[in-house]
Write a structure and sequence with these properties.
five-stranded mixed sheet, Alpha-Beta Plaits, 17 strands, six-stranded mixed sheet, Molybdenum Cofactor Biosythetic Enzyme, Chain A, homodimer
Chain lengths: 442, 442
């Protein structure tokens, strides 16, 4: 039997409709990758007796229990109290944790508020876990609630996702790998393919036969048109596990061809930024319906100022003409949402910015503004390139995201998919450019 | 004490990283609105003993347990088996449920596969709940696992969100309203304040004394600098509950003054869009480090094209000069990240776009590019206004988000906080403008 883990997310916002827990989902594949079977996720409000019972339930049924949230300075933050109650220990001040909070307030040039001293309180026998991203130290505590005759171990981590991720990776994961090994779990390795522009059902039809085994196990995660395919394999040693995962990932990638954005788990903006830099390509955008989302995506990547010049977010028709030189007559004749205007926006953006390539978008994001002929979700994108030493290239893409546009989040989904589709088309062009240069240059 | 509810979501995809449970989040406010306190959400894989234990845990601690998922026809779908095991009942065929499945296959012109007959199997004493959206009937089952001396009641609902929602609203909600009434639940009402630009600890210090009661209860939710403060009060009738929640929310708003973005739960982009429309103000942005995020935020709001003209996302220095008319000498003298350049970007954006007000931003988002004098996280924002019939106004804001900028997500946090701060400064200016016009116009 595999070693077992459970995740307890603490916070009233998780059970009153304000927020869905997402920490559990991010921890699941990491735990699975170490050989743990995740038995339960539990969400519980900031009420001491309920948290105590949730921790007891989890600790009696799993070797490792990960708590997230409730480590802040306010009176609502009572994870430390609940852990102490379950362990039947008193709280005491952990000097390192307290010094860390003080240091952050010092750096901000502010006095530490009195209630932040609570963030230094841990159960007596707890061991602190440093937080590189915020004030709240986490802690580890071994509990005398045995599961399978072994002491259960709990880790209390902050609820803020990027703080939790950093603490888990730096301090918890190494300990858990050793624990999994001690509990007899085999070695696991994972490989992640990133795919864009295929529906889950199309993807399923294409690769279902490669996803049926328990080992290597294949799992899919879909978000905004991007699918992350994670292949996890076991082996007698890490090398064998890695080879097993890689072989299956390669077989899947073979089937999916150009839809594969990356074979190493990088997302689309990162891959595009890397290709821009490797090909020495300078980029501009011209955005209407996405309202700056394409630029916001690519500028997530640090150091992108080497390649990315500007985006003209031309929401009004006047801005399209004044900023990009789109002929007002063209807008009048074809409408602002048309292949012709998309094309004129892209070439205008390229020429005016001096970029090697420009990508434009114009569409009807909704919820209003659609017609029978041009429904909500209709989007035109154009790519226009004239790189130094390369072939001029231009193309217009039409997409109808209408089926996705229904419901309250439809507008945001149309916009996000449009921005991602722009980046994906650019990726394919950049890959071609890189390949052409390699061919040409030997 | 309030009647209590728990939600158990069943499915391996919920604990292996493929999916985050969202059914719980949608049910939470519905249950709270009936007077139930949601004690737990539990997610569990498709493993019989684990599901049995999860149901037992929940049923011993809540008057009502809602199960979602695991009612399909495949061998993985074992919610019916788990419920029968907890209730110590046999499974038997529910003729209405089976006839429903057969009818759907008839309508599709297909033979019912043999394993779909499983969808007619319920624990002996269960009562079926019709499904208007799919094949799976749900069921209700009263369990002999008393909580507070009362029999716990479970509802098993399909996991597909729109099927669950329809079944809950049509068949479960009416029964639960009666149960809540029988258990003596009062009426509840909530009021939500949205606040920007205060740390959680400062907020806590300002309003802690107003947040200590159980009724009205006050809860805080923080994200990207925005705090949502939800006040929930009970009353003999809905009017009394609403008045109680509103009175406490007003007392909190009084303390926080201009930090309050909205008293009705609307977020910053919505509030700004509304103020722009009510004041007839036309807006432009000039963005460097945010790379289009401010424009992306405001264009989330449908119909914003009436007020929002454009954003110049001028990432390179050349773009700042060419697009906004920023003097290259100014950039050379003070650096692209400076109060002077922020100011020039804003006035350039306003004049060139013809907008009434422009807001600009330039900063060092990191992770590289910082110096001792201008560290990562230093951001300058400027607002420049010259509205028709109003006073010209200009202001530069300096912020140091440095303490937040560390680590892998620091860049994204600096950018998001900068974009939100731009909108918030604009909100305050628009509120002043609205107030001045009201004063002037009588």
């Amino acid at each position: 039997m595999k070693p077992r883990a459970a995740i307890v997310a603490i916070g009233s916002e998780l059970v009153d409709g304000r927020l869905a827990d997402t920490n559990g989902q991010r921890l699941d594949p990491k735990l699975a990758g170490m050989g743990f079977e995740v038995a339960y996720h539990v969400c519980v409000a900031d009420r001491l007796p309920d948290i105590v019972e949730a921790i007891r339930f989890a600790a009696r049924r799993a070797h490792v229990v990960i708590l997230s949230g409730g480590l802040g300075p306010t009176i609502d933050d009572i994870t430390r109290d609940a852990a102490a109650a379950v362990a039947e220990q008193e709280l005491r001040t952990d000097e390192a944790a307290l010094a860390h909070v003080k240091m952050i307030f010092d750096a901000l040039g502010r006095e530490m508020p009195e209630n932040n001293a609570r963030q230094g309180l841990f159960p007596e026998k707890a061991v602190g876990l440093p937080n590189s991203r915020g004030t709240a130290f986490g802690f580890r505590l071994d509990l005398d609630l045995p599961h399978d005759g072994l002491t259960s171990r709990i880790y209390a981590l902050p609820g803020v996702p990027h703080e939790l991720d950093a603490m888990f990776d730096a301090h918890v994961a190494p300990q858990l790998r050793m624990l999994a090994h001690a509990l007899g779990a085999p070695n696991f390795s994972s490989s992640t393919l990133v795919v864009f522009g295929m529906s889950e059902s199309k993807l399923d039809a294409a690769i279902a036969d490669l996803c049926r085994d328990d080992d290597p196990a294949v799992s899919l995660n879909v978000r905004d048109g991007t699918v992350r395919i994670t292949v996890t394999a076991s082996g007698d040693d890490v090398e064998a596990a890695t080879a097993g995962a890689r072989a299956r990932a390669d077989a899947i990638a073979e089937r999916l061809g150009r839809r594969v954005v990356d074979r190493d788990g990088r997302d689309l903006p990162e891959v595009v930024a890397d290709l821009l830099e490797r090909t020495g390509t300078r980029l501009a955008f011209a955005e209407s319906c996405t309202g700056g989302m394409a630029a916001a995506l690519i500028t997530r990547v640090g150091g992108i100022s080497k390649s990315f010049l500007e985006s003209a977010v031309t929401y009004s028709n006047a801005a399209k003409s004044d900023r990009l030189g789109v002929d007002p007559g063209l807008i009048e004749a074809h409408g602002a949402v048309s292949a012709e205007v998309a094309q004129a926006m892209a070439s205008g953006a390229r020429i005016r910015s001096g970029a090697d390539v420009a990508v434009s978008v114009t569409g009807i994001a909704g919820p209003d503004g659609g017609t029978a002929e041009k429904p909500v979700g209709l989007v035109y994108m154009a790519i226009d390139a004239s790189p130094k030493g390369g072939q001029p290239f231009t193309e217009v893409i039409e997409r109808r995201f209408g089926a996705l546009a229904r419901g309250g989040h439809g507008r945001e989904r149309v916009r996000a998919l449009s921005a991602m589709t722009m980046l994906d088309r650019l990726r394919v062009w950049l890959e071609d450019r890189l390949a052409a240069r390699s061919d040409g240059g030997g």
